[in-house]
Structure formats: C-alpha cells, structure tokens
Amino acid sequence: MTTQEKPQIGIFGAGWVGLVTGACFAELGHQVVVRDVVPERIEALRSGRVPFHEPGVDELLERNRERLTFTLDVADVAAAPIMFVCVGTPRTYSGDADLTAVWAVVDELPQPDEHAILVMKSTVPVGTGEKVRTALDARGLTHVGYAANPEFLAEGSAVSDFMKPDRVVVGAYTEADAEAVAVLYEPLDAPIVRADVASAEMIKLAANAFLMTRISFINEIANVCEVTGADVEQVAEGVGLDHRLGPHFLRAGIGWGGSCFPKDGVALKQLASNSGYHFQLLNAVIEVNELQKRRVVGKLEKHLGKLGGKTVALLGLAFKPNTDDLREAPSLVLASRLLAEGADVRAWDPVADARHLLQGVTFCDSVLDAVSGADAAVIVTEWDELKSFPFDDAKGAMRTAVLVDGRNLLDPEQAREAGFVYEGIGRAASPLASLPETEEPELQTEA
Ligand SMILES: NC(=O)c1ccc[n+]([C@@H]2O[C@H](COP(=O)([O-])OP(=O)(O)OC[C@H]3O[C@@H](n4cnc5c(N)ncnc54)[C@H](O)[C@@H]3O)[C@@H](O)[C@H]2O)c1
After folding, report:
1. Is 105 close to ligand 1, i.e. is its CB under 6 Å away?
2. Predicted confidence (pLDDT) per residue in 357-395, tens digit
3. Catalytic residue (choose from 24, 225, 260, 364)
4. Is the pLDDT of residue 432 over 50?
5. Is 122 in the pocket of ligand 1 (CB under 6 A)?
6. Given this model, what pLDDT does residue 435 score?
7. Mean pLDDT, rounded, for 148-167
8. Which of 180, 184, 122 is nearest to 148 (CA)?
C-alpha cells in the first residue's frame, strides 16, 4: 500500500499514548495530525522536542517529520477519516474515571464532511462507548462511527509495545468500522481480537487488574517468605516456570504506581460497586499495594530505630525505569512517610524531576551524592544505573551502610560482602552463609 492509500489519522492528546500512537502510525506510512490543548506542548513538538522521557519517540518524530503535524485546532483532526481519542482519564475524588477530556472531544467534534470513525484509545469505564454513541447521535453526528481500541503499551517500552503488540483489541458498532480500524494494524502482524464495544472496554480494565493482582500476589508471597525464611526470587522462578502461570509480573517489590494501575484499579472497583457488585479480590489487591509501599519504613526502622533525625537516600523516583513519569510513584508515598517520621530525605533520579512534588527533600545529581552522609539508602526504581551499585564508594560516603533494595535489583551476598546490611523484599539471608561449616546440610540426592 502506498502512503497516499493509507488513511490520514487524527489524534486527540499528545501524551504518552497519543504521541506514541501518532509517531508509530506515521512510521507505518500514514499522515498524522496530533492535537493537544496545551499550547506549550504543541510548540515543543513543532520544534522537535518531546515533552517527556520515552525511549525511541524522539527518533520516530525526527524520522517522520514530514508525515506529522501538531495542532491546537480541533478542525485539523476532524479532517481525518479516523480519529483516535488519547486524552487522559484520571480519577475523580470518588475513584471513578474522570471523562471530562473525553467529553470535551465529543462535544467539540465538528461535523465531518464524510463518514469518519472516532476510536477510543483512552482507558474508559465499560459503558462509555454506549454513552458516546448516544451523544454523537444526539448531536446529529450519525455518520461518525465509534470504535473501542484500548491501548496496552507500557511507559518505558511504549514504542516497541505499540509496534509489537501481543494483540490488538477492536470493538465497534458496525462491521465496516471494526474492519477499518483493524486494517490499520495489519502491518504489525498481531492477533486482532474482535469484541463488542463493552467487552473491548472490559478487556483493558481486566488485563490491568490481572497484572496488579499478580504483583500484589507475589508481594504477599514475599512478605510471607520474610517471616518463614524462604526467598521470593527462588519461589518466583519456580512458580513462573509452570506454563499455566508464566514468569511475568512475578517480581516482588515495593508496589506499583504510575499513570494507569492506581487509577484503573480504583476505576474498575468503583465501576463494579456503582453497579452493585463488591469486587472483593480487587479491593484486597489495591490494599496490599498500599501496605507494600509503606513496609519499607518498617524495614528502615528495624535497622535504624526511630527515623527522626536520620538521613535516608531514595535512589530512583520515577514509578518505573526509562520514564520520567512520577504519577502515583511509590517514591512519593515513601518520601512523604519518611518526612512525616522526621527523617531527612535525599533523592536521586536520572530523569524524573520531583522538585515540584516533594517539598523538603534534597535532590542530588548522582547516586554517590545522594547517599553521602545517609544512614540508609533505598532502591526505589530499578534504573540500569543502579545495577552496578558503587558499593565501596557508597560505603565510604554513608554514615551507616544500610541498604534496602526495594526492587531486589542487587545480589544480597555481594552487598553483604561489601559490608552492607542488606534488606531486599522477601529475600532470606543465605542459610549457608550463617551456618558453621560442620552444619552445612548435605545435598539430598534421592527422594
Ligand atoms: N500512559 C500509559 O502508559 C497508558 C497506557 C495505556 C493506556 N493509557 C490510557 O491512555 C489515556 C492517555 O494516557 P496518557 O498517559 O497518554 O495521558 P497524558 O496525560 O500523558 O496525555 C493526555 C494528553 O491529552 C491532552 N488533552 C486533554 N484534553 C484534550 C482535548 N480535548 N483535545 C486534545 N488533547 C487533549 C492533555 O493536554 C495531555 O497532553 C488514558 O486514558 C490512559 O489511562 C495510558
């Protein structure tokens, strides 16, 4: 297919999802127009600057400059036969998804001259498609089709996730609209799941809830490991090799954060309860995560006693590596708890700037600077830079060498050999390390 034959694509929202979607469709040969409502964001994009940290997006924008247009004008997007809605759907005070930006798009949409399709990529509650369809009809926009096409990309690997999806989900009210959306993804050679609109909406919410459940599950197993002497890393490996379970999302840590899981989990819980169903499991999954973020404080107190007047270095602030996104990052909860306990908090992150979010924290330019004079360091985000933790230099710079590895990133034995008191998540001290040689158990060779 030539570029001319590929339909033009309009995008509402130049955030992670909108910009990545736009850049990737441009890479696939489409002319793409991306609209946002924030003038500085559009200005930055027009001058070739990506307004956030996401590997690979700069290169895509640069390579496809000719095919990408950035605009503040809704009419520019409405000229495209296929328009993706990629606006934010944060949570409201009640926990429901805030669809203000979605409704703004629907309300502002001009009358297209010909048949067009509004494709919902934003994560929305089940039933949103039905409401948007009704609203479009009420505005006389009956020739605007509607499709649900939830997005599964993850920040930090967004470009490759988009280009190599596990599946593409499409739900629409007509076969022709579903086909028109599905065809866009043909070059990606991924399974296309056709579903009705409500089910497509639920697939996204259920997939996220399942991932959160796996994380909270392994975190609870880790907590039980800590009180029973097992090592969650070994447990996760043994569990994950079961083909019925698989290895993904079985990494114990200090809990999830980010722009999606926290709000989508609560939104699904709320959606269920608004409909009269108490989603007990999801409630527990969310509560476990809240407690998990706070367990680090207990680990620090175990070694330092009361934290008032103690200095703690937080290594990594972004909610995950390879992004500068701080939305609902566990680091924010942890820093706030430590400050509330009267600790001095020093922090380092290679890209995320939390100055506007955390008052009273000392921000540092390097890992060594952050740990200087600290009573303990906490690995909060598994940045590559931390994989080669400078044990010797850090030990020399710290007041006491206590290391809480919130992501099980480092080798506990290496840390202990370097003179650190090491605490991971659900990681037992090596039993062999503490036993006298004569008591070393014999290898069991037969059942
Ligand atoms: N970030 C992720 O990893 C991810 C992954 C999958 C799905 N999602 C979902 O995709 C949606 C977007 O997420 P995001 O992280 O890209 O959000 P974001 O906050 O980074 O970006 C949203 C953008 O939409 C713009 N916007 C608001 N109103 C607008 C309007 N009327 N017209 C045009 N633009 C408008 C905002 O200015 C902002 O730039 C959310 O529903 C989210 O849950 C996000």
Report:
1. yes
2. 999 999 999 999 999 999 999 999 999 999 999 999 999
3. 260
4. no
5. yes
6. 36
7. 97
8. 122
Q: Is the CB of 155 under 6 A from ligand 1?
A: yes
| Distance in angstroms (rounded) separating the CA atoms of residues 131 and 129 | 5
Q: What are the two backbone dihedrals, phi and then psi, of residue 273, each rounded to the nearest 5 degrees?
A: -70, -30
Q: What's the pLDDT tens digit per position in 292-318?
A: 999 999 999 999 999 999 999 999 999
pTM as predicted: 0.93
DSSP 8-state secondary structure symbol assigned to residue 399: S
**DSSP reduced 3-state for 435:** coil
C-beta pairs of 174-179 under 8 Å, 24+ apart in sequence: 174/145, 176/145, 177/117, 177/145, 177/146, 177/147, 178/147
Ligand 1 atom closest to Cα of residue 264: 43
pLDDT at 441 over 60: no
Q: For ligand 1, say whether the CB of 260 is within 6 Å of any of its atoms.
A: yes
Ligand 1 pocket residue status of 14, Cβ below 6 Å: yes
Residue ID of nearest Cα to ligand 1 atom 28: 101
Q: Which helix (H) or strand (E) holds 145?
A: strand 144-148
**Which residue CA neighbors atom 1 of ligand 1 most closely?**
16
The residue whose C-alpha atom lies closest to atom 15 belonging to ligand 1 is 16
Q: Which pLDDT belongs to residue 5?
A: 82
Residue 113 is predicted with a pLDDT of: 85
Minimum-distance ligand 1 atom for the alpha carbon of 155: 3
Would you state the pLDDT for residue 429? 60
260 is catalytic: yes
Q: Which two tokens stand for residue 416?
A: 């202990």
- For the record, the structure tokens of 436 come out as 């006298």
Buried b (16+ CB within 10 A) or exposed e, 377-403: bbbbbbbebbeebbbeebbebbeebbb
DSSP track, 23-40: HHHHHTT--EEEE-S-HH
Determine the distance separating the centroid of ligand 1 and the alpha carbon of 360, expressed in angstroms.
30
- Measured from the CB, is residue 326 less than 6 Å from ligand 1? no
Which atom, in ligand 1's list, is nearest to the CA of 150? 7
- Write down the pLDDT at residue 4: 55
pLDDT at position 436 is 37
Atom of ligand 1 nearest to the CA of 154: 3
Contact 364, 346 (CB under 8 A): yes
Q: Is the pLDDT of residue 431 over 60?
A: no
| Residue nearest (by alpha carbon) to ligand 1 atom 13 | 88
Structure tokens at 129: 């498609």
Answer yes or no: is the C-beta of 35 below 6 A from any ligand 1 atom: yes
Greatest pairwise CA separation for the chain in angstroms = 85
